[in-house]
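pls design
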């Protein structure tokens, strides 16, 4: 669970995920990544973790962005399945029960937003453009590549992730899973609107960064294939 300046959300998000996972899993861990926050996000996360050994807090000394933080969290994970969610909880933790029946038959579960009305207008525009480029360059079979996913750890930790931008790490993982023949399943869920704090996606710098990662992956996989 990466986040930047989420002091209004981090404690509630952590406690809701703890409660949700306790209902469905015998063993779990929560990795909270404080991505260079300048508010009390890290302090609050550490206070919650102090009372629960299943929670680990990692601090980036400076802001590295969601994509890099997510990749670092994946590398640290120890359980069989890896799920990522933002501290503003775009996926409600209580919805995890809907996904359990798909675990035996999948290697990746991509959560598909029923609608994107929770996005601000600018985010809807950038999301539309992002999806158009993804389809033009890669022809993915999965409809929603930029929301929330579950990954088998054996795949996620072995995938040679090239991307570092905020919006292209998860599409790269899904595309790689599709192209090497893994089982990718899409399951719909309601997209939860941010209730507090400020979103950090959709900046022009991040859009350019994502475009660079898209083109780099397209050229690299044309030359070397999807397993390298």
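designed seq:
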């Amino acid at each position: 669970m990466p986040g930047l300046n989420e002091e209004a959300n981090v404690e509630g998000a952590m406690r809701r995920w703890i409660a949700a996972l306790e209902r469905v899993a015998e063993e779990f861990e929560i990795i909270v990544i404080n991505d260079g926050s300048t508010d009390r996000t890290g302090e609050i996360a550490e206070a919650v973790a102090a009372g629960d050994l299943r929670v680990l807090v990692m601090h980036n000394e400076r802001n590295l962005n969601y994509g890099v933080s997510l990749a670092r969290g994946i590398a640290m994970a120890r359980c069989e399945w890896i799920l990522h969610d933002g501290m503003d909880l775009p996926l409600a933790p209580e919805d995890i029960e809907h996904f359990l029946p798909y675990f035996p038959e999948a290697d990746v579960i991509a959560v598909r937003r029923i609608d994107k009305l929770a996005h601000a207008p600018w985010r809807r525009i950038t999301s539309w453009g992002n999806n158009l480029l993804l389809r033009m360059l890669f022809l993915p079979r999965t409809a929603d590549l930029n929301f929330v996913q579950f990954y088998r750890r054996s795949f996620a930790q072995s995938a040679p992730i090239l991307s570092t931008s905020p919006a292209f790490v998860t599409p790269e993982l899904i595309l790689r899973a599709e192209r090497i023949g893994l089982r990718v399943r899409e399951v719909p869920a309601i997209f939860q609107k941010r209730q507090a704090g400020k979103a950090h996606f959709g900046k022009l710098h991040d859009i350019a960064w994502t475009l660079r990662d898209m083109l780099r992956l397209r050229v690299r996989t044309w030359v070397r294939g999807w397993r390298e």
